[in-house]
């Protein structure tokens, strides 16, 4: 079976999602969650089950065999990403594997190029506008390129740049609603809950822009707050051809995060969800813990800049906040009191562990 072919059918209410040359059985992308919350095990399981499995590339090297100190950080990231893509592909030989690469990373170009060179089918890019993404993947025409946006303005800026500089369009757009999404949010803190940046507002507007102004067959994918079949169908009613889901996949047996991380999700309530200011310069949604309480008071004690991992970092520049690479690595390895546990708004609905296949069967019942 060729990668990217349509490998099944679902009920009549479910659209076919085609991103570039790749068509998963189900119109679902598993959200990229770093550090190592979504690595090869989760991505491979989702791809094997018929969705698009996503590896988050951020700081993969920190907890890898390649990291031996500050000087090895970037090379360790590159080598670890190659390993994770290979492991995901081994788990899902005929599946569709994506890599989420944050624009904010210092090694963004290297990680994008590594993703393409080692067989990623799709590259997803957010936490900034991926203006040079086509340049970094120019030798890999079969790799689909998918920016994450939170507004029409961001989408149109990317389109204008890509058309002018590269004579191409994105293969899809992911619209991420800051009011419900997990991790870094593509909005200013005061805009997070804006109705103008909700899926109900942005998805239909972007669908119209793509079809009427661009006259392109480019799918729009809804992300943020998607949990059950009802949410999926609502996204489709807005014109989305697919959904992206992150939080719910954390509480799976296949998720790469430590058991302590998953337990924190299962124990959390809606009241435990907080917004923090990330040194990236964006707000982030996380579970309240001793770490988030401390960072509200000032620089986190004991943190040092690991390796200049971000293009712009308030901690590196002004010693404001914390080292996000350290905080996320501590969390995924199980030190949830001293780490940053990113989550989406639905984290309070996680009550127990399930298999990836269970989620897929619920969301996309057989014909």
What does it look like?
With 367 residues, this protein is of the alpha/beta class. It has 2 domains: 28-256 and 351-363, TIM Barrel, CATH 3.20.20; 260-346, no CATH class. The protein has 13 helices and 11 strands. The chain has helices spanning 40-48, 73-91, 108-117, 133-136, 152-166, 199-213, 229-237, 247-250, 259-267, 290-295, 314-318, 324-332, 356-363; strands at residues 28-30, 52-56, 96-102, 122-126, 144-149, 173-176, 183-184, 220-223, 242-245, 273-277, 283-287. The strands form 2 sheets. It has an 8-stranded parallel β-sheet with strand order 1-9-8-6-5-4-3-2. A 3-stranded antiparallel β-sheet has the order 7-11-10, with no helix packed on it. It is globular. The protein starts with 27 loop residues before the first strand and ends with a helix.
Number of domains: 2
Q: State the CATH class of the largest domain.
A: Alpha Beta
Q: CATH H level of the largest domain: which superfamily?
A: Aldolase class I
Mean pLDDT: 94
SSE pattern, N- to C-terminal:
EHEHEHEHEHEEHEHEHHEEHHHH
User: Within the largest sheet, what's the order of strands?
Assistant: 1-9-8-6-5-4-3-2
Described by strand count, sense and barrel closure, the largest sheet is: 8 strands, parallel
Helix/strand class: alpha/beta
**Poorly predicted regions:** 1-7
Spatial extent as radius of gyration: 19 Å
Overall form = globular
Q: Number of helix segments? A: 13
Compute the separation of the termini in Å: 22 Å
The portion of residues forming beta strands comes to 5-15%
CATH architecture assignment name of the largest domain:
Alpha-Beta Barrel
Q: Strand tally, please?
A: 11
Looking at CATH, which topology of the largest domain would you report?
TIM Barrel
């Amino acid at each position: 079976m060729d990668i990217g072919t349509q490998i099944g059918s679902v009920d009549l209410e479910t659209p076919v999602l085609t991103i570039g040359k790749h068509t998963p059985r189900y119109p679902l992308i598993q959200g990229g969650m770093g550090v190592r919350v979504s690595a090869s095990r989760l991505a491979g399981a989702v791809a094997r089950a018929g969705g698009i499995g996503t590896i988050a590339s951020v700081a993969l090297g920190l907890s890898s065999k390649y990291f031996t100190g500050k000087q090895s950080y970037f090379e360790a990231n590159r080598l670890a990403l190659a390993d994770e893509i290979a492991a995901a592909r081994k788990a899902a030989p005929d599946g569709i594997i994506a890599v989420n690469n944050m624009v904010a990373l210092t090694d963004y170009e290297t990680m994008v190029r590594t993703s393409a060179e080692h067989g990623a089918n799709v590259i997803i890019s957010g936490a900034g506008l991926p203006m040079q993404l086509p340049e970094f993947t120019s030798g890999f025409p079969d790799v689909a390129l998918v920016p994450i946006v939170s507004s029409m303005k961001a989408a149109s800026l990317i389109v204008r740049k890509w058309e002018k500089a590269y004579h191409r369009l994105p293969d899809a757009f992911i619209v991420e609603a800051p009011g419900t999404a997990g991790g870094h949010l593509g909005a200013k803190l005061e805009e997070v809950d804006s109705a103008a940046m909700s899926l109900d507002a942005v998805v239909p507007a972007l669908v119209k822009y793509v079809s009427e102004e661009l006259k392109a067959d480019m799918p729009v994918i809804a992300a943020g707050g998607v949990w059950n079949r009802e949410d999926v169908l609502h996204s489709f009613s807005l014109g989305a051809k697919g959904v992206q889901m992150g939080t719910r996949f954390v509480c799976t047996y296949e998720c790469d995060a430590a058991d302590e991380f998953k337990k924190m999700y299962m124990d959390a309530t809606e009241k435990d969800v907080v917004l923090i200011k990330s040194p990236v310069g964006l707000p982030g949604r996380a579970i309240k813990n001793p770490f988030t309480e401390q960072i509200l008071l000032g620089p986190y004690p004991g943190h040092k800049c690991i390796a200049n991992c971000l293009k712009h970092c308030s901690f590196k520049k002004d010693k404001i906040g914390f080292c996000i690479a350290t905080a996320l690595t501590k969390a995924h390895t199980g030190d949830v009191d001293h780490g940053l546990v990113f989550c989406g708004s639905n984290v309070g609905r996680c009550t127990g562990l399930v298999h990836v296949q269970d989620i897929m069967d619920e969301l996309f019942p057989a014909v």
